[in-house]
Amino acid sequence: MNTCPACGTTYPLAALSCPRCHALTHRARLVELSSQAKVFADAGSADAESKILEQMLELLPSRAAQAQTIQARLAELGKGKPRTRLVGKFAALGALGLVLWKFKALLLLGLTKGKMLLLGLTKTQTLLSMVLSLGLYWSVWGWQFALGFVLSIYVHEMGHVAALRRMGIPATSPMFVPFVGAFVRLKHAPRTVHEDAVVGLAGPISGLLCALACYGVYAATGTSIWGALARSGAWINLFNLVPIWQLDGGRGFNAMARVQQWRMTLLVGLSWLATGEGLLVLLLLGCAYRLFAQPAAQTPNRRSEWTYAALIVALSALSRIRLSELG
Question: pTM of the predicted model, to two decimals?
Answer without folding.
Answer: 0.64
